[in-house]
Amino acid sequence: MQVQLDEEVWEMADTVKLEDVIARVSDTAHARGCLVTNLQVGSRALTDRDLVPSVLSQVAGPLGKVIATSQPIQSIVESGASSAQEYGRGLKVDAEKLVQAFRRGEKRFRQLDDWFGRLADYVEWVELARSVETADVQSTSMVSWVHKVVAARERSDLVEIADLLEFEVMPRLTNTP
Length: 177
Description:
- This protein has helices spanning 18-31, 53-56, 73-103, 109-131, 143-154, 158-175, and strands at residues 2-5, 8-11, 34-41, 44-46, 66-72.
- The chain is α+β, with helices and mostly antiparallel strands and 177 residues long.
- It has 2 domains: 2-64, no CATH class; 75-175.
């Protein structure tokens, strides 16, 4: 089967699993300081949300040619900085509302879980920016605090969730890109 990343083309066995093909594409892009920004398998465009075990475990050959494009990580970070700042501000506003609800004793776990999904996208971008040492990125990672909030969520500890959001996570949303 044929695999293409930007202008480079190579062959892989038709019997290899799609996860192995994508791993090679990703590793090749990363070695160049790039990230895969578009992925097409056969006639189907795939996003990271499509890459679930049932898709990744398929034999790649019958699916068709894999075509991927990449962009330098630095340019992705730079072009996304203002959008990421705006997204972070929106997350902070939503976190403030959650903190107020938890302080009132309201169990807003569904809203918290939705917020976590959006926060995961933001943290992924922040960690990417940290990896290319963008000047505006705060030196302290938010990841450890997010794990603590998740643990408090699992225990349904409203006070700890509110405290962690208010005093640990929200300030980092303000100080990151």
